Amino acid sequence: MKMTKHDEARECVNEQTNSSRKTLQQYIDEAEATEKELERLNEVVIPKIKAHKFDEGVKVEKELEELKKKEIPMKALHDENYHYFTCPKCGIDWGYTCEVEEHKYCGNCGQRLEFDTEDWEEEDEE
After folding, report:
1. Do residues 39 and 56 share a domain?
2. pLDDT for 91-106, tens place per residue?
3. C-alpha angle with apex 120: 114 to 125, nearest 5 degrees?
């Protein structure tokens, strides 16, 4: 049976309609998948990110607090018989050959140091 031009046009429209329906269904499926992924992000991923940022923020605050404490000078301890001083924070001994005041921070823990060399000279004289 031979198709008329009208039948051919109808067949063409039907094919295009079916093709459009298929494409439309694909868009609907993708939208639903995206919606599910967004729900997962809101329920699982975003709270984890927020918790991580909070934990990192607390960690940074603690580190800053420690750094602030290290900036408060502590009096270095001096051994009257030898040319070295001891960090009062970590207890590490440091020898020196130059002016001791050039050592502003402990090379081990970073504690800011304070030197009262006048007391040291009095100790050396005794």
Report:
1. yes
2. 988 876 566 667 788 8
3. 175
Instruction: Look up the domain containing 80 and give its range.
Output: 74-125
15 shares its domain with 48 = yes
Output the pTM of the full model. Answer: 0.48
- Quote the number of domains for the chain: 2
| Residue 38 identity | L
Residue 93 forms beta bridges with which residues?
Answer: 86
Whole-angstrom Cα distance, residue 39 to residue 43? 6
Residues 64 and 121 in one domain: no
